[in-house]
Every structure is written in C-alpha cells, then in structure tokens.
TrEMBL record:
Highest taxon listed in the record's lineage: Bacteria
Lineage per the UniProt record: Bacteria, Pseudomonadati, Pseudomonadota, Gammaproteobacteria, Oceanospirillales
Top enzyme class: transferase
GO-annotated cellular components: plasma membrane
SUPFAM superfamilies linked to this entry: Nucleotide cyclase
GN (gene name): dosC_5
UniProt keyword list: Nucleotidyltransferase, Transferase
Name listed for the protein in its UniProt record: diguanylate cyclase
Organism (species): Marinomonas gallaica
Record-linked InterPro entries: Diguanylate_Cyclase, GGDEF_dom, Nucleotide_cyclase, Rev_trsase/Diguanyl_cyclase
Length: 335
C-alpha cells in the first residue's frame, strides 16, 4: 500500500473497478488490493505476472490474487507476527466491508441507468424526461456518496498499513532481534553469552535445535510452509521456555536455547522433553488439513567449560547437533 491522498486513491479506484468489472473479478479485498497496485504501476514484476496470467487464463483467479497479495503487498514478517497478523486481518475486513458496499452502490447505479434508458426509449412527454432526471440525480448522488466514503475508508486503512510498515522496519533495524520470530538472532545470543559466561560455574548449558528435513519440506510444500513451521516452533519453544532461559533463532530452522544454572544432565533431559513434545505436534493449513504430521528435530547439548568463549560453546553444541543428524536425526546428542 502507498501513501496516496484521498483524491489519488479515488482516481485509482475509478481505474481499477472498471477493469475488474470487465473481467468479472470478484470485489474481494485481495482482488481490490492487487488491481489497485496494478493501475498504480509501481511494481513492474507484479504487473508482468498479472498480464502473463491473464494472457494464459483470460482472467485472474482469486487464489492467484491472494498469493500475489501476500507476495507483493504484505511483508513476510507481517504475515507471521501474530500481533501484526491480527491487525492486518482487521484491515482486510474493513476494506472488505467498504468494497462490497461500494460494489452494491455501483450495481444500483447500473440499474438506475438501465431504467433511464428504458424510459428514454419511449419518452414522448416532458414528465418522462423529468422522471429520468430524478432517477439519475438520486442514483448518482448515492453512488458519489458511497465513492467518497470508500475513498476516505481506504485512506484510513492506508495510514494504518503505513504505521504497520514503520513498526516492521523498526524491528528489522534492531540488530539483536530476528525479524521473523522476534527471538534473539545470533548476534543477540552471543551478547547474552558474553554477559553470562564470566559469572557461570559450569552450569550454563546451550541447546542447538534444528528442524529435520526442512529442505524437503520446502521442496514439497513450498517455502511458505517451511516459514510457517519455523514460526510455529518458535512459539512452542517460547511457551515451553524455562525461567531465565534465553531463546534465539540462528538461521533457517536452527534455534538456540541458553539454560541458566543447568547441569549437562538437566539440559539433556529438557532437550528430550522439547523434542518429544514437538514430535506430537502437527502443522495444518487454514482449511485444517495436515501439512506435516510429525515435527522432527535434532538437538545438540553442551555445557560451558571454565571460561569458554561464546564462539567455542556455540561451535561445540553445533558439532553435537551434527552428530545427532549423523546418528539418524530426531534425537539429542551431547558428545
């Protein structure tokens, strides 16, 4: 979405709606958002994809519009951050209500015009012409009122989207946070370890947990499924988080968990509890169908030795993770 003024938004509306009506495109929020961007011509790649799809199919199916909407109009972080997701859903519902109201008004205006044509075809007295004028006056006034209301509503939605975008940009600029999950990133993890290791007494443990077969999941179900799985696991890890524990996402499907005052045996036990719990989870799509029937992860566990550096502790835990993978995956290794 772009910071268009109400007048600009209204002008784009009058370009987008006729194109949608010409191809019998349903006035859904996703369709409207895509066609609004199309007539605005600020995303050449989007326009190219739409043109090629219309060229092949003769129209733009709703499911493709929805995919394009998520790809070009909504940032990936916004799709999977729960708070922002809720706010986006409210915006979509708001645009949906206004869009349907606007569509009904245009349909009523079409009926008025058709009635006017019929009256004019047999008009032979002044009163017939006056009747046509009254029809058109009432119909156009209502349509203009709805158009003005819709334009104002769209402008408010646009302002809210810009605010969301600013928040997402701010999150991206936070060098210690992973923008997708809002967990610490590797730099944030290292900062935590630097502050914790000097005061630890061989009871600081690090778990490196990695999603098994993530590459195959992406290949089979698409990257969006893999991203959804990463976010799903991040929420589970947060819900199972121990007091004073620190969770980070390092890269891809790899997470780190720092356990304060945890011996190696305790850390291994906790890793197994997490792994077993994740094995029981399923990832479903919006229709409730299962995409992944069993979530498998491998875990490497290491406990700090003396004044070991953060980099060395991470390397040891990562090495144990590799051992767990070599031993068959979906298991915990501490050597």
């Amino acid at each position: 979405m772009h910071p268009d003024s109400p007048r600009q938004a209204n002008a784009l509306l009058y370009k987008a709606v006729p194109l949608m009506r010409k191809m019998d495109i349903a006035p859904t929020p996703y369709n409207y958002g895509i066609w609004y961007e199309y007539v605005r011509q600020t995303s050449p790649k989007l326009n190219q994809l739409m043109d090629s799809t219309i060229g092949r199919l003769g129209s733009l199916p709703s499911f493709i519009s929805k995919e394009l909407f998520h790809q070009f109009l909504v940032a990936e972080e916004a799709r999977y951050n729960s708070d922002h997701k809720d706010r986006l859903e409210e915006l979509v519902n708001s645009v949906s209500t206004s869009t349907y109201t606007m569509t009904e008004s245009l349909q009523e205006l079409g009926s008025v015009i058709e009635k006017s044509r019929r009256v004019l075809s047999r008009a032979d007295r002044q009163q017939h012409l006056e009747k046509v004028v009254r029809y058109l006056d009432q119909g156009t006034k209502k349509a203009l009122e709805e158009a003005e209301y819709f334009s104002t509503s769209l402008h408010k939605v646009n302002e809210e989207v810009l605010q969301l975008k600013a928040e997402l940009d701010e999150m991206k600029n936070n060098v210690d946070l992973d923008p997708l999950t809002q967990l610490l990133n590797q730099k944030g993890l290292e900062r935590q370890l630097y502050s914790l290791i000097p005061s630890s007494e061989d009871d600081l443990s690090l778990l490196i947990l990695d999603i098994d077969y993530l590459k195959e999941i992406n290949h089979k179900n698409g990257r969006r499924a893999g991203t959804a799985l990463i976010c799903h696991i991040s929420r589970i890890l947060h819900s199972k988080k121990l007091e004073n524990a620190t969770i980070a996402r390092l890269n891809g499907g790899t997470f780190a968990i720092v356990l304060h005052e945890a011996t190696l045996d305790y850390a291994i036990e906790y890793a197994e509890i997490l792994r077993t719990h994740l094995n029981k989870q399923r990832l479903k799509n919006r229709s409730g169908e299962g995409i992944i029937d069993k979530i498998c992860v491998s875990v490497g566990v290491a406990t700090v030795i003396g004044q070991e550096t953060p980099a060395n502790l991470i390397a040891r835990a990562s090495g144990y993770l590799d051992n767990a993978k070599r031993q068959g995956r979906n298991r915990t290794a501490s050597r």
